Amino acid sequence: MSATLHPPRNSAELIAAHGGRITRTRLAVLEILQDGGHSLSHDDVAARLSAAAVPHDRVTLYRTLDWLVEQGLAHRIKGPDRAWRFNFGGEKAAQHAHFHCDRCGHVLCLESVRPDERFALPEGYRPERAELVFHGTCPDCGRQIGRNEAAGS
Amino acid sequence: MSATLHPPRNSAELIAAHGGRITRTRLAVLEILQDGGHSLSHDDVAARLSAAAVPHDRVTLYRTLDWLVEQGLAHRIKGPDRAWRFNFGGEKAAQHAHFHCDRCGHVLCLESVRPDERFALPEGYRPERAELVFHGTCPDCGRQIGRNEAAGS
DNA sequence: CGGAAAATGCTACACTGTTGCATTAGCAAT
DNA sequence: ATTGCTAATGCAACAGTGTAGCATTTTCCG
Fold first, then answer.
1. Strand C CB shell (< 7 Å)
2. CA A45/CA B35 separation, integer angstroms
3. Choosing among A134, A138, A144, which should be mutated to test the B contact, i.e. which has the most B CBs within 10 A?
4. What does the alpha-carbon distance between residue A134 and residue A122 come to, in Å, rounded to a whole number?
5. Is A134 helix (H, G, I), strand (E, B) or coil?
6. For chains A and B, what is the number of CB pairs under 8 angstroms?
7. pLDDT (tens digit, 9 = 90+) per residue, A85-138?
8. Kind of pairing between the strands at A126-137 and A97-101
9. DSSP character for A81?
10. Dihedrals φ, ψ of B121, to 5°?
11. Residue B105, CB half-sphere, CA atoms under 13 Å: how many?
């Protein structure tokens, strides 16, 4: 069914372990999120479903992504535009920073960078969680720029 | 014309100094942004324009806000939903953090808190700017909670 | 005042996401 | 394997946020 996606056979178990029913869309989306090296928007996921010839519905996909986030199987971050991006893995356990590449538009997780306790807020504020997002050039794009410059403008 | 808004007479000069024409909407929006203690969405601004009986158009308001941001007279930050919030003052000069209150929904500027150079990113990343947003309870809401608890539930 | 350019105010549209509801399909019990 | 309950789906319709195109109005400068 999903010949073009490497199926990490435990997707089904993951879903079942969270008390959900195992469905076509959930399986495919979980695999896509695991495969994708960076965050994917709803639309990106839809495109990959189409590419893998998995029939799907817009609304069902939204609901599937919401469910994965609720269950801690994925996390959601804001993109450069006003669409959410989704990543495999829950957020709770990993309060990490993200990186928006201004060149390719990808959103990457920086697991090793955490806002933590570094900041002293003014009197009265009670922070519970911090969101840290860098903007700039990602390693891939950096390499490409390097190559282009090396090859002479 | 704008009797309910304290008019900081220099709004007009600010606009003129940036080579823009002085118009009803620009004046009113600038004053609203200066008045508002926290970030305002497009819709918040529209509501205040209505309250002040300033006729306005949705699209013009979007364009006015964009223009203010372009000119460095305001800055734009992401809100908890997918609408932008606007604040008086340019971002360039002040790369500060923001605070989303989960209770009242307001977005506040933390001028004193800056991400700066505190973080070591993995090899290859070239950050140009960092966005730091805290979520939690703001001082106002914190005080209210305190009062309610003191008064006995 | 008169004219050029900047802003405005429409209308129409695009994108992202949600709601309601009838239908289908997954899963446990039989 | 069949049955039945309920989760999940698929569809249509809608809501919120923002943008594009373009004719009209306003601002400002001489």
1. A 16, 21-24, 41-43, 58-59, 62, 66, 81-84; B 19-21, 23-26, 55-60, 63-64, 67, 82
2. 43
3. A134
4. 23
5. strand
6. 110
7. 999 988 766 689 999 999 999 999 998 898 877 789 999 999 998 999 999 999
8. parallel
9. S
10. -85, 160
11. 9
